[in-house]
Amino acid sequence: MSNAWERKRARRALVQAVYQWQLAGADTAVIEQEFLAGKSLQRADSEYFSEALRAVTKRCEELDALFSDALDRDFAALDQVERAILRLGAWELSQRLDVPYRVVINEWVELAKTFGAEESHKYINSILDGLAEQLRAVEKNADGRV
After folding, report:
1. In the predicted model, what is the mean pLDDT of residues 113-119?
2. Which of 35, 39, 47, 64 would suit a FRET pair with 57, their CA atoms being 20 to 30 Å apart?
3. Which has the closest alpha carbon to 91: 26, 14, 2, 33?
């Protein structure tokens, strides 16, 4: 069982790995091995990293469809960092129900502050919050924040 810091480190590496995949189009297995062999996954949840990287790169069109309607611009106009974070957030909201939606949104918003453009974290927050309403309505209702 990983702790929150190990998962946080994995998410940070995921932004970089998915970004690299989007730009270079390199084989996912090659990118995964580079990260597993490097320092960015030291003391990180490497299983979570591998699961997410494989899922997001394999199912990116399905994940893109989850949030595309909420975009205020054409998908192609999204910044590459925003695109990576939205794909990862959509995956985590839709597939990892063991992670509370508030944690998912907070983690990806924080990474948008680190890697994204100046105001992109607000955009990421808005899109992921809307997606959480769609995918995690029961959880949000139970939380009293609808």
Report:
1. 92
2. 39
3. 14
